[in-house]
Every structure is written in C-alpha cells, then in structure tokens.
Design a protein that fits this description.
homodimer, alpha+beta, 11 strands, 24% strand, elongated, DNA-binding
Chain lengths: 232, 232
Amino acid sequence: MRDGDQTLVRKLRLFADMEEENFADLMQIAYLQTFPRQVQLITEGEAADFLHIVVSGAVELFARSNGRETTMEVVRPVATFILAAVLKDAVYLMSARTLEKSSVLLIPAENIRAVMARDQHFDKAIITELASRYRAVVKAQKDLKLRTGVERLANYLLRQEIEQGGTGHLVLPIDKRTLAGRLGMTPENLSRAFGTLKPYGVAVDGAEIRLTLPDDLAGLAKPNPLIDDPDV
Amino acid sequence: MRDGDQTLVRKLRLFADMEEENFADLMQIAYLQTFPRQVQLITEGEAADFLHIVVSGAVELFARSNGRETTMEVVRPVATFILAAVLKDAVYLMSARTLEKSSVLLIPAENIRAVMARDQHFDKAIITELASRYRAVVKAQKDLKLRTGVERLANYLLRQEIEQGGTGHLVLPIDKRTLAGRLGMTPENLSRAFGTLKPYGVAVDGAEIRLTLPDDLAGLAKPNPLIDDPDV
DNA sequence: GATTTTATTTGATCGAGATCAAATCATTTG
DNA sequence: CAAATGATTTGATCTCGATCAAATAAAATC
C-alpha cells in the first residue's frame, strides 16, 4: 500500500486515535487489493472474516431476499464497511460489490478484535463510529418511510449540491441505475422523477445536473436536518 | 426502584459486565419514573439528556417529517433506547411515547459518559449493544425494502409465534394501529392484510391469533434468518 | 347500563410506483 | 468506424398501498 493511502486510512475517525504501534500492526497484516468494477466482494450470510476499507473507487452494499434485490448503501473512500458484523463475529447482513475499479484494504477480523482488547482509544473510536453508522441507517429509514420517491430524489440532489461546493451544479457520483436502487425506486421511475423535477429547476444532462431554482426545489423537498444533515 | 427491577436492569447485556461500583453509582443517580399511556417522553431534535431504559410497559419510537409520521420501533422491557444519541452527545433522531402505562429508568447522559471513561467492560458492552442495534435496523430496512406489506405481516406473525412458545397461538403485543405503523402500512391495509392471510391459516380474534397452517404461511412469508432471526 | 370515545373493519376510489415492452442514446469492442 | 452491448428514457398497463367515507365493534367513562 502506498504511504499516501496509509495516511488516509490513519485519518479515519476509527483509527485516528489508535496507538501508533497498534496501527502499525494492523497495517502490517492488512492487505490492499484492487478489483475491477462489478466484482462481488462479500456475500450476505457468510462469516465476517475481514473488515473492509474502501481506499479508492466505490462499493455498493446490497441485499437480496426472495427474488428481489435492493441497494442498501453506497460506500465511498475512505470509509469502512461491515464493521458491526466483524465486531459481533457474525455473518454479513449485506453483500458488497464494486461499482467501479476500486482498491479495498482488508484487515482480518481477528486482528481487529485483538487490538480492541488492548487499545482503549480504539474502543472509543469504535463506539463513535458505530453510533454514527446507526444514526445514518435510522436517517435512511426515515427518508424511506416519510418521503415519496420524488422527494427523496430532490433531497438527494440538494445534499449532493452542498457536498460538491454549493455552486448550483453537481455531477451524479453513481450511475442512474444504482442511484435508483439507493433511493428505493426503479430506474424507470427515477427517470420520471427527474422529469417531475424539471419545473423545479432541475436540468439533467447525463450525469451533470444543474439546479437553477434551488428555492423552488427546496420548497418541494422540504429538507430536514434530522434526515439530511450527515453531521447531526 | 424495587430491587427486582434493579436486578433486571443489571442483567441487560449493557450492564451485565460493568464493575459493581460503577453500576451502583449509576443506579444511585438514576431515577425511575412511571408514566400513563400515550405520554411523549422525548422529542426528536432535542438534546439527548438521558439514557432511557424501559422497565415495564412499552414505548414506541416514532419520527415525523412534513406532515407525516411513522413508527420506527417498539421497545419492550427490559431494554434501552436512544443509546446512540447519548453516546454522541447529539440530538434525538426519534421521538418516544408510552404505548401503555410504563416505568422508565432515566440515567443522565453525562453519567453514562463518565462511566464509559473509566470502565472498559462498559465500553465493550456498549460496542456489542450498538452493533446489535445497528444490525437490527439494517434488518428492518431489508424487511421494508424487500417485502410487501402482506409478507411483512406474515413474517411478523411467524416471529411472534416462535417468541411466544411455538404453540400455533399468539397474542398481538401491541394494538393494531401501532402494529400497522411498525409494519409500514396503514391500519386499513393491515386489516386487509389479515384478510389476505386467512386462506393461509391465520385466524384472528381481536388480539388473539391462531396459525392453523403454519407451513402454508411460511410458504408465503419465505422467512429469511438474515432478516427475521434476532440472534443473527 | 347507557353514552361517549376510540379502535377496527369494510367499501370505493385514487395515486405512487412497479412492470412489461420498446425506442433511443452511449459506450465498448472488434 | 460499424456492430454490439449496455444504459436510459418513454409509453402503456397493472398492482400495491393510501386515502376518504362510513359502518361496526370494543373500551372507557359517567
């Protein structure tokens, strides 16, 4: 792994306060793998052997039941996923696949648990991380249960616009098929939802979106910090 | 608080391994309050001042946005709620109200955090608890996104039947209005969903349910341990 | 026990979103 | 560059679940 990547990983809340020696240990054991797009990394139901950290690219977490499949979350660098399964020594509840060429750092679950046993800073960091993740899922569930598809899309666009600098312009970071799954709708309906938002100043050109009437859009979306603010 | 209640609280995973002194400290400071039904205990958006523990009765966690409201979870004794908000010193993401006469143990957030700082066993217990809660929400989200309303009801009934002893008979632990919210549907549709399940051996008499064709019901429900098993 | 009040059920209708089918547009590959 | 593959959009239709309205049943209150 390049030093630059290691620095990025070290900056994660989860590792930032860890004792240097323990971090070095983990990095010693961990290995970085690069995968092409559309490679399935983990499968729900299997034992959680490794903590995964997306270092570059993007990973989709998804789940299946009956014949159906749904996107649960898209993880972008630098972030961990399936931490809870590793900590509980349980099976994965979600599968994961790369959305694009991605490099993923793999740390054996047993080593994570070993460091946990001796590094209190790590425990605190895990608590913070888990609490944040928990709240993120609760927000996602509120988004899903309290809003229509069009409203979810409108709020998603507003969040992205802020994240990308608040210039009234944004680029969709994932293809529309995946975005549809992420927003809990079909690609066809996502396409129609964009159509519905046109009168609210949403101009779509491929992955490029321009928000020309942000106030109108916000009037429809009614953003709520208890759902949309990632820092709350 | 009666000693019996204290023993029950002590048995919670969260407190079981805590050092005796720290537990005694918390119980010293904590106070038990009894509320009639339909009392709102906390409101989303307010600062998380207390960790709540349902000692008796039942508490509904719900959320609002726009004009809509949805049930997120029903908490039954003995269990904590809004742990993540307390740990992050953040605002509540959900509101809570009693569903029936309930007693709730309140522990000031600052004391929780103080014990955390000095009791490593508590840290471990918090990690386990948070990881479990996280996985519970993920399962709830899979339930919601991968199943129709009728399927969610069918699986709910099968889970309850097991929980209540596997005798082919169960009593709904909450009224149908709340159950509908819990299952992500309206009371009207819950009523119709029960009708749909009649041919699958679901006999309803008020809150009493008899499952006379469990295999048929399971055939429709297609239970999935990665959604329905609370221990996975 | 009669009267309210609240919960549940039933019927009719509406709307959001899914599905199926097909066209169009983009990207990749030979 | 042309063929082929995959993504996105559009149209038509269908299904699930929401909503509105009203009836019925059950509980709580006087």
